[in-house]
């Protein structure tokens, strides 16, 4: 069970951390009673701590009464050395890439079975984009996600392939088809999507290496890849290699 207070101790700090630890990918929004149950903290104590955490900004309360992780946690997370270093190193190259393509630029990493967007430069084309900095999207339906999934451990791939969800009529939901695409990503060096996350939006993405390890993905979102796939891939590859060298 997440955030077990008996293991963490009985101090106020340990109980607050147990409450935060009760949230995970399957429990992003929870009621007071759910949080108390998962953190194994008495209901009255949970209620008091939720109020304090909410006032500080660690949690937000939805109109439904459920609690979600607050923006303050994300702001503090930006101070983590690995993420901060990656974003700082990548920033000038993201702007160069945007200047060369005028497309929406994404910098993303994998967390579990999802893509987490570290940075985004919005393109000036009228292309629907659902990503946001700090937001999460499925690995199997995004360009940056497919790159990260292709380089992920086998158990991560198996988990994702076992639960493919359809987002648009073009989303790949057949495990065999997606496995073939992931092999092609490794062979070609880049991934593409065609309206698989959002109708009217296509994407292309490449890995960013630190040494021989893929640490992030760099992607572009455009209205269509027809006639421009190789040109965009070339621009992405140059930017990703430059970022990798700086890392």
Automatic annotation (TrEMBL):
<dbReference type="GO" id="GO:0003700">
    <property type="term" value="F:DNA-binding transcription factor activity"/>
</dbReference>
<feature type="domain" description="IclR-ED">
    <location>
        <begin position="72"/>
        <end position="247"/>
    </location>
</feature>
<dbReference type="InterPro" id="IPR029016">
    <property type="entry name" value="GAF-like_dom_sf"/>
</dbReference>
<dbReference type="InterPro" id="IPR050707">
    <property type="entry name" value="HTH_MetabolicPath_Reg"/>
</dbReference>
<dbReference type="GO" id="GO:0003677">
    <property type="term" value="F:DNA binding"/>
</dbReference>
<dbReference type="InterPro" id="IPR036390">
    <property type="entry name" value="WH_DNA-bd_sf"/>
</dbReference>
<dbReference type="InterPro" id="IPR036388">
    <property type="entry name" value="WH-like_DNA-bd_sf"/>
</dbReference>
<dbReference type="InterPro" id="IPR005471">
    <property type="entry name" value="Tscrpt_reg_IclR_N"/>
</dbReference>
<keyword id="KW-0805">Transcription regulation</keyword>
<dbReference type="InterPro" id="IPR014757">
    <property type="entry name" value="Tscrpt_reg_IclR_C"/>
</dbReference>
<protein>
    <submittedName>
        <fullName>DNA-binding IclR family transcriptional regulator</fullName>
    </submittedName>
</protein>
<keyword id="KW-0804">Transcription</keyword>
<dbReference type="GO" id="GO:0045892">
    <property type="term" value="P:negative regulation of DNA-templated transcription"/>
</dbReference>
<dbReference type="Pfam" id="PF01614">
    <property type="entry name" value="IclR_C"/>
</dbReference>
<dbReference type="Pfam" id="PF09339">
    <property type="entry name" value="HTH_IclR"/>
</dbReference>
<feature type="domain" description="HTH iclR-type">
    <location>
        <begin position="10"/>
        <end position="71"/>
    </location>
</feature>
<keyword id="KW-0238">DNA-binding</keyword>
């Amino acid at each position: 069970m997440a955030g077990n207070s008996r293991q963490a101790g009985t101090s106020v700090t340990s109980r607050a951390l147990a409450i935060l630890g009760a949230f995970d990918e399957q429990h992003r929004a929870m009621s007071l009673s759910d949080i108390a149950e998962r953190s194994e903290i008495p209901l009255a104590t949970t209620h008091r701590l939720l109020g304090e955490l909410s006032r500080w900004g660690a949690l937000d309360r939805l109109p439904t009464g459920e609690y979600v992780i607050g923006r303050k946690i994300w702001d503090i997370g930006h101070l983590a050395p690995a993420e901060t270093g990656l974003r700082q190193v990548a920033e000038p190259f993201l702007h160069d890439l945007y200047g060369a393509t005028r497309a929406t630029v994404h910098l993303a990493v994998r967390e579990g079975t999802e893509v987490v967007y570290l940075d985004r430069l919005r393109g000036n084309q009228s292309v629907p984009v659902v990503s946001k900095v700090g937001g999460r999207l499925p690995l199997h339906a995004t360009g940056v996600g497919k790159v990260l999934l292709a380089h992920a451990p086998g158990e991560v791939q198996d988990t994702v392939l076992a639960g493919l969800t359809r987002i648009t009529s073009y989303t790949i939901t057949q495990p065999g088809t997606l496995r073939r695409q992931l092999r092609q990503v490794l062979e070609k060096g880049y991934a593409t999507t065609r309206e698989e996350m959002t109708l009217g939006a296509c994407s292309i993405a490449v890995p960013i290496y630190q040494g021989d390890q893929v640490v992030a993905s760099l992607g572009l979102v455009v209205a269509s890849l027809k006639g421009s796939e190789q040109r965009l891939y070339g621009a992405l590859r140059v930017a990703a290699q430059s970022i990798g060298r700086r890392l």
